[in-house]
């Protein structure tokens, strides 16, 4: 009885936390098309200034891949009013920090400052948008940086190429088929004009969202936003082709030999709906249930109980047009990757044929409640979520309502979506193997 009371209390506590943390925000457009979202939270003297551009690896020319990721580096090189090497110095001198990241559909830049340095953050991001220097010195410097990054993260890293190998097999038409880091040969052969054209096309206010979140005065912030970003000219409308993949109807078998590993892996990848669709949320729950963390079904079965696997791999790839669910494992002892595949398929089949238990369902719901609370526990996290919800899911207020989607998902929904998307004949099976040694 005591355990039931504690469980009920914990559920009530989580529910209270969720309902109490509604994120208030205001959004509007400048005349040049820049979308602005303000979130005022004066509980701590911290502010995040961020800009998300609607450009990722999918927007690249197939013969010039890697540009989106390259620009993540290049646009810290300097502007007409910020000398090379000064970006980080200015940020640090004002008590802040900065970073950026790139994915399939977007590129995100941000600074976190004490709130009395808000104007510095707005100036930096307006400079990046209006006055970037796309010069040969910066291009040559960042080519070397990206080459080294690829060597460290992909070419010389154990299992570093699996993302690239899966994408090239999951997609044949869509630009998701190449990895975000792209081709070093493409970057090496690109001209300065190629980079200038990419910047002129995508780094424009009408292809971006500006987020200011934290200890701000909304009225004063609006004036600063208009002063710094209002003069930036609107860019030409961007035309994106609507590229559809043919359905996968037969298992795609692939192999890759990685010279950096000694233990093979089996990876099963399924193409799933874009991240804004309800089924994508259900896939996220399935991923968490099956393979995310030590409490997942596959980890407990393969690692803890049967001791067949050294590790279980789970990589849900959320993206705008299509998402992917990747599950796999590394064998231990005399077990083979085929043994692991059989065990994984057994658990997927159970999910397709039986409802998960009420206890497991409630644990899953609790986990997503906690994830939701944690994702919005800082102004930095809130800024990122506001940007992604607006740009990639077309609904900024999902920051407040997304948890309701998860709450609405039933055990029956989980079973039906598993049946629909996790079919053997609709997947890529990648055998990720050590490099074969020359017998001679």
Automatic annotation (TrEMBL):
One of its GO terms (biological process) is proteolysis. GO terms for molecular function: metal ion binding; metallopeptidase activity. Residues 190-367 form the Peptidase M16 C-terminal domain. Residues 1-20 form the signal peptide. InterPro entries: Metalloenz_LuxS/M16 (IPR011249), Pept_M16_N (IPR011765), Peptidase_M16 (IPR050626), Peptidase_M16_C (IPR007863). Residues 36-177 form the Peptidase M16 N-terminal domain. Keywords: Hydrolase, Metalloprotease, Protease, Signal, Zinc. Coiled coil: none annotated. Belongs to the peptidase M16 family. This is Insulinase family protein. It comes from the Bacteria.
């Amino acid at each position: 009885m005591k355990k039931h009371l504690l469980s009920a209390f914990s559920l009530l506590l989580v529910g209270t936390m969720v309902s109490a943390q509604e994120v208030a925000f205001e959004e509007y457009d400048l005349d040049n098309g820049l979308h602005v979202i303000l979130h005022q939270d004066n509980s701590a003297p911290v502010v995040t200034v961020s800009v998300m551009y609607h450009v990722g690896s999918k927007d690249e020319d197939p013969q010039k891949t890697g540009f989106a990721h390259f620009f993540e580096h290049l646009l810290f090189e300097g502007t007409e009013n910020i000398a090379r090497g000064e970006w980080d110095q200015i940020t640090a001198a004002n008590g802040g920090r900065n970073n950026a990241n790139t994915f399939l559909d977007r590129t995100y830049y941000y600074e976190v400052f004490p709130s009395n340095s808000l104007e510095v953050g707005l100036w930096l991001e307006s400079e990046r948008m209006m006055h970037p220097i796309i010069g040969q010195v910066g291009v040559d410097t960042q080519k070397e940086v990206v080459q080294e990054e690829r060597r460290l993260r992909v070419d010389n890293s154990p299992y570093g190429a699996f993302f690239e190998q899966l994408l090239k097999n999951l997609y044949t038409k869509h630009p998701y088929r190449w990895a975000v880091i792209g081709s070093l040969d493409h970057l090496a052969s690109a001209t300065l004009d190629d980079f200038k054209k990419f910047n002129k096309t995508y780094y424009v206010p009408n292809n971006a969202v500006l987020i200011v979140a934290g200890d701000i005065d909304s009225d004063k912030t609006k004036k600063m936003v208009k002063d710094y970003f209002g003069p930036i000219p609107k860019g030409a409308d961007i035309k994106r082709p609507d590229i559809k993949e043919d359905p996968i109807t037969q298992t795609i078998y692939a192999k890759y030999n990685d010279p950096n590993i000694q233990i093979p892996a089996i990876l099963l990848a399924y193409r799933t709906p874009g991240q804004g669709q309800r089924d994508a949320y259900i896939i996220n729950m399935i991923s968490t249930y099956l393979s995310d963390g030590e409490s997942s079904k596959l980890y407990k079965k393969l690692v803890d109980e049967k001791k067949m696997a050294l590790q279980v791999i789970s990589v849900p790839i959320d993206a705008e047009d299509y998402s992917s669910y990747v599950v796999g494992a590394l064998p231990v002892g005399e077990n083979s990757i085929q043994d692991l595949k059989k065990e994984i398929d057994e658990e997927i089949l159970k999910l397709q044929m039986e409802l998960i238990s009420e206890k497991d369902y409630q644990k899953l719901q609790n986990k997503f409640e906690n994830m939701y609370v944690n994702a919005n526990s800082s102004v930095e996290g809130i800024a990122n979520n506001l940007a992604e919800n607006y740009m990639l899911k077309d609904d900024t207020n999902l920051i407040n309502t997304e948890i309701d989607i998860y709450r609405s998902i039933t055990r029956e929904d989980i079973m039906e979506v598993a049946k629909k998307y996790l079919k053997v004949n609709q997947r890529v099976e990648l055998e990720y193997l050590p490099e074969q040694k020359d017998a001679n």
